[in-house]
Amino acid sequence: xxxxxxxxxxxxxxxxxxxxxxxxxxxxxxxxxxxxxxxxxxxxxxxxxxxxxxxxxxxxxxxxxxxxxxxxxxxxxxxxxxxxxxxxxxxxxxxxxxxxxxxxxxxxxxxxxxxxxxxxxxxxxxxxxxxxxxxxxxxxxxxxxxxxxxxxxxxxxxxxxxxxxxxxxxxxxxxxxxxxxxxxxxxxxxxxxxxxxxxxxxxxxxxxxxxxxxxxxxxxxxxxxxxxxxxxxxxxxxxxxxxxxxxxxxxxxxxxxxxxxxxxxxxxxxxxxxxxxxxxxxxxxxxxxxxxxxxxxxxxxxxxxxxxxxxxxx
Length: 314
Ligand code: NDP
Ligand code: OXD
Prior knowledge:
This protein is of the alpha/beta class and 314 residues long. Helices cover 29% and strands 17% of the residues. Helix 1 packs across helix 9 and helix 3 crosses helix 5 (148-159).
């Protein structure tokens, strides 16, 4: 059987991170890198990418499947010309999910344990003892998106005694976690979320979901963590809700424009913590093995896991 061709469509600086492990793990694959020399488009069987240039994927006439480098596929499906009949496989990995859950626990605890307050006290050399305002069991965490990552984050937070609920399109059975489903139950879910974590995929339905109307339904002093996509958040609405005193603050890992421009006010807001889209990063060796296994299964005519439904967008 002729070698199959996998085209890597990533920014030039990312290419070596992926081509190295792929070359070792799948030596039988013919590996090409987009933008490196001329490309015979008819030779491409598979693509591995995260945010391909719009219009490019449709130029590959013999493409069999596209693998996403990340769990989120919004950067691929946002291309209006993406050929929706080509299977798109997203990256689902337990280590990635665990690291995401870890980030959620870290930032919930940072807020709950008032760590920023103690940081400021240290900067001023002040011994400011303060009691926690309430017990973890009385602190209600709400997770928007109770999927692979949301469900794990919910369980991890439950282990730290928080009172955790999740919201999704369909109802879920996650031990110890209250499940709210659909638009009709969103308000009730928000009304019991002292700490709100966004772990939704970015789709036309969820774009801009973190907006003034949603913030108004959270309890006073609620805290918001967005670890999904920048497109979920209306940044001006968040700043306004914090500055008005309704929300107590936020942690943001993802932004509408990445890298976050140096003059963006989120950087210097005293009640906002910014991290540079690092909650979890797909591990190249694990992802290379995932893609190599996926291609082998596809070639054997087997069905693949984690195929995205292009209609839903996740
Ligand atoms: P999943 O597809 O497993 O879960 C998505 C969840 O969102 C499901 O529970 C789904 O509900 C729910 N959902 C989707 N659309 C709606 C809607 N319109 N209304 C209500 N609920 C909805 O995704 P993952 O958990 O694997 O990943 C979530 C996101 O995390 C990714 O899309 C990505 O953007 C982000 N991410 C960020 C990273 C970072 O470093 N910051 C790293 C990895 C991922 P249902 O199951 O009922 O359909
Ligand atoms: C992902 C990401 O979607 O890294 O996996 O954001």
